[in-house]
Amino acid sequence: MNPNFLSDLNSAQHQAVTFTGGNLLVLAGAGSGKTRVLVHRIAWLLSQGASPQNILAVTFTNKAATQMRIRLEQMLQFSLASMWVGTFHGLAHRLLRLHWQEAGLVQSFQILDADDQTRLLKRIHKALSLDPEKWPVKQSQAFINGNKEKGLRYSEAATNGFVDPVLIRVYQAYENACSSSGLVDFAELLLRSYELWQNNQQLREQYQKRFGHILVDEFQDTNAIQYAWIKSVSSSDSNLTAVGDDDQSIYSWRGADSNNMQRLKSDYANVNVVRLEQNYRSTATILKAANAIITNNKSRLGKNLWTNCGDGDPIILYAAFNEIDEARYVVDKIQLWRKQGKALNEAAILYRSNAQSRVIEEQLLRAGIPYRVYGGMRFFERAEIKDVLAYLRLLVNRNDDAAFERVINLPTRGLGEAALVLLRNHARLHNCSLWKAGETMVATQQLPARATSALSGFMSLINDGSMQIAKLTLAELVQFIINLVGLHEHYSKPQYQEYKQSRLENLDELINAAGQFSTLVSEDDRQLLLNAFLAHVALEAGEHLDKDDSNNCVQLMTLHAAKGLEFSLVFLCGMEEGLFPHIMSMGSKEELEEERRLCYVGMTRAKQKLYMSCADSRQLHGSTNLRQPSRFLREIPPELIKSDTLINSVKPALFEDLSQDLSHGQDVSQGNDFYLGQNVSHQEFGEGVITSFEGHGEHTWVRVKFRKVGSKLLSPEYIRGRVI
DNA sequence: GACAGTCCTGTTTTT
DNA sequence: CAGGACTGTC
């Protein structure tokens, strides 16, 4: 290692990296070199004699964990294999695989992802005959996950305040189903491994002793169970380093509690605090604007981010006429950026919700600009992929009812709802899995003749497959299953024609992924390798397709997904009331403050140029509606903003506060672009004002309220704009 | 039992 | 607009 690796740190960073007094809380503002401090600190600890296996480094996302690994590998010469670096969920899973017996699990336990969980709960609701109107599955799901995140089992869930007994019953039934199927959901990974430590003093002490240095990234995002998990592996001799920024806490809807940062001070002895307040990322203008916004939040620890960078360009605001116009504007600016010879992957388009990406994608496609969308439907969440994975899960564990239900009739083999009802009843009666129920019912001929033969065919298919595990490589096994089951034929059926191509490609990609995975994991036991692969795909649902990461693509993602990243050029789209802040998060002060933090996170991703845009009207859920610009826009000091828009006459109040400073850009209403509230004239009907747009694209109609003849719906070609 | 067609409703962020 | 629930036909 370069002995001078500390020389490029500022004094606060240096202090954090080389701290020796026990526990440390690093308050690290956006762009203040947080990851750098963590990585350097680990390197420094190793240089001071700590062994890699003494270190536990926890991050929140897979992306951050990978990043940390890569940076460490660059700095150090030796292997990191014995160092525990990963996400909370990944590490908890690792622990449970090592101690499955003590944790009361079966060795072949599998991870239940959110989608599997929904399906399972749906079945449970049905079994309990719950009226879906009165008892939505989503509610149960939130209830169960919320309680697990607080560390509460169903027996404890009722203890604080009134809880409807129905929810407790669902929770209980769900727990039973999971444990009899050998399934563990995301929250369960943490809760179960926490309980493992709590109930097993010897094991706990073993790990406490091992992990002399515990480092936690994004500490503001920890929830109760994650906090307890960390606490339980900490001893009085451990050294905890927690890094976080309360202004970037954006996951409270998932149980995260940034108060955990303060809680440290009372739960741990002698917590030293280091503040990183120098920002190395953004221009002063961007930073000032972001600071101005976040200052409106009441509940914050408070800090003062500053920078040495120059002012840079003003933030550019564009009020589009609709979402298509907004997308076109963004694409125009990206083309300009490209013409200047700048890298496309330094440009990011950020939005509040995934649904917003489609319109932008269309415009990028039309302009021939390569792009990459993060999030949305991920690779391992695709139906055809999950189908194959369900087969693999059954090979590993016949009692996996969730997998069983998924593929019992895929491709259709005459085992529909009626047969399943019989199986489920038998399974419930005898308290066994669907597979076992099937075995019994086939043997004792308790099913109609047709179903019996279909079911025994299905079961021998699975049995045949599982004999191959030891013989084939992982990739060969996946291929084998696809062939055995006849998935190519299945997806080639006429009703799937539309997606056939991409589905078959995805199946090939899965074979590919399986092959790659085997080369990455050193596991000789094929059974364990398959287990590891299944866990891998559940925990990292698809960012693995990063093979073209070096590609020069524009990056599209939600604001949440952008946390921790930085780009030279950033677009924040859909800055509208109801969209951002989101309508579902406008109900309380707390939610609104979280939206504001999200805005802060988004803005501070930008290094040089920041564009923010909103639309006058937007098509949402099938209908077009009028929008108001986001309150966040008004919280930015006007002198930091330049408008690229002709001021909209119908909504002068929008930019009231900014108006003196808005430079009147070029008229964007030239050509066919009209805007709401525009004064127009018509040969026959006279003068009027545009009140709405209907339809979209080439088929946009304009509703005009005429002074004399009232409201009319017209094709835009018959009206003329009059610039006032 | 399978499947196609119709009606209806609910809209966020993710390990 | 899309996905899910429900209905009717083969």
Would you give an account of this structure?
- There is one protein chain.
- The protein is an alpha/beta fold.
- Helices cover 44% and strands 16% of the residues.
- It has 27 helices and 23 strands.
- Strands 11, 12, 13, 14, 15, 16, 17 and 18 form an 8-stranded mixed sheet that branches.
- It is globular.
- The N and C termini lie far apart (68 Å).
- The model is unreliable at 647-672 (pLDDT under 50).
- It binds a DNA duplex (15 and 10 nucleotides) through α4, α9, α18 and α25.
Percentage of residues in DSSP E strands: 15-25%
Number of DSSP helical runs: 27
Number of DSSP E strands: 23
Shape by Cα distribution: globular
Q: From the alpha-carbon coordinates, what is the Rg to the nearest angstrom?
A: 29 Å
Q: Which segments are poorly predicted (pLDDT under 50) over 5 or more consecutive residues?
A: 647-672
Helix- and strand-based class? alpha/beta
N-to-C CA distance = 68 Å
Helix content: 40-55%
**Biggest sheet, in brief?**
8 strands, mixed
- Overall pLDDT: 86
Can you tag this structure with a few keywords?
27 helices, DNA-binding
Write the layout of secondary structure elements.
Elements: H1 11-17, E1 23-28, H2 34-47, E2 55-59, H3 62-75, E3 84-87, H4 88-98, E4 110-112, H5 114-127, H6 137-149, H7 154-157, H8 165-181, E5 183-185, H9 186-199, H10 201-210, E6 213-216, H11 224-233, E7 239-244, H12 260-267, E8 271-276, E9 278-279, H13 284-294, E10 306-307, E11 315-322, H14 323-339, E12 347-351, H15 357-367, E13 371-373, H16 383-396, H17 401-407, H18 417-430, H19 434-443, H20 449-467, H21 474-485, H22 487-491, H23 497-520, H24 526-539, E14 554-558, H25 559-562, E15 567-572, H26 589-603, E16 606-620, E17 623-626, H27 631-634, E18 641-643, E19 679-682, E20 686-694, E21 701-706, E22 710-714, E23 719-721
The protein binds a DNA duplex (15 and 10 nucleotides) through residues 60-62, 87-90, 113-114, 132, 186-187, 189-190, 250-251, 253-254, 352-355, 375, 409, 412, 414-419, 450, 495, 539-541, 558-561, 582-585, 594, 598, 619-623.
